[in-house]
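Weekly structure sync, notes
Attendees: PL (lead), two postdocs, one rotation student
Agenda item 3: pending single-chain targets
PL asked that the sequence for the first pending target be pasted directly into the notes so everyone works from the same version. It is reproduced below exactly as submitted, 182 residues in total.
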Amino acid sequence: MTLVMHIVEADLRRFAPPIVLWTVLTIAAAVYEGFVPRLATKDQVWPFILLSAGVLWIARMILAAAIVVQIVQTHSTIGSQACWLTRPIPRGVLVIAKILLALGVTIGIPAVADTMLMGAYDVPMIDIMKIVGEWSLTRAVGTLIVMVIAAQTRSLTQFALACGGVLAAVAVASSVLAGWVG
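Predicted structure, written out during the meeting:
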């Protein structure tokens, strides 16, 4: 377990600036969501609220994906420079360390922010636990999907191209399916 924690700590030091930025954006999103009900009383404010909430959400998702990709790709899993070919780190230890850090960043930080926001609105603790559990499961699935794609690509650029290809394939497939149904 000490080797796992060593890898996690090394990656935390390496990725401290983007993780801090992710934390700031996540807290900002929670604060923003907390103030929206107070700001929503004026009709002329709604377009700004929707636009800024959308931009904040997109920024958080892109940053989260970029952090996870960088965490996974720090120690190469493919090619002749694969980490376990050049260093005496067992593959299982490396995978566990990467999963712990990626899930800790993408689930732990938002879970704390969401819990504090719901606590500020006096949501019952049982409901907070249910909601945070559901959101955490959804975030875990998304994070693991990003990790799988990141493990199969060598760089952030290749990752972005692979994701673009998957999105294009889904769009084409849904268009074809919609044509058959309609």
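Discussion points:
- The chain has seven helices and no strands.
- Residues 56 and 127 are 26 Å apart (CA to CA).
Action: rotation student to compare against the earlier draft before next sync.
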